[in-house]
Amino acid sequence: MKLISRKSITATAAIAVLGGLSIAAAPTQAATPTHSSATGHTGAAVHTTLTDRELAKLPLTNRHLTKHERANLAVVLRDYYVAEGKTLDADAFEDSFAKDGVFNDMVPGVAYRGEALGDVPRYMVGLFPDVHRELKRITVNDDVVSIELSIQGTFEGPLQSPAGTVKPNGARVDVPTADFWYLHDGKVEKFDCFVGYSTMYAQMGVNFDWASAVDKH
Length: 217
Prior knowledge:
Oligomer: single chain
Low-confidence stretches: 1-47
CATH class: Alpha Beta
């Protein structure tokens, strides 16, 4: 199975995915941010589709994508790129959504719209400044892009909890995640994200007190 690893964030991305995630070029070929006329924000050069060569480097379940599907996948991959710790562009992430687009953090049941959309990648980078998403399996079906991935990073930012602030401890996280993107006319209408929070908090050193919950009964 092909994975998109941290070392493969390179110049291929700027060519392949709307200035987004790179796939398997040499690690020495660093992507150079440029001004994107499509978004009005700083980002890599804008492209609207993926070539056969670029698709071959992705962990796709089906490589026979239509032009429309390639364009949708390019939008999604670019969103991952601008949400990376080293290439954060929260405004570009927000701009990829339709006017009424929504980001659903499915496990806690929280929805983000409008300007709050940019808060999602900002929050993750605040917790994990080196946050990276390793894409393991990608399925594209018309306007739906489904991705199995891992969210990776180092816990270096404070975590606000109902009990107070959890201080960073430098712990590494590798969190199983499933993302479902729904697009229309090149814009994200809905993004449903399922994050393995139990695993993430455990790796951060946060252990829920089950005993106190049992004692209440």
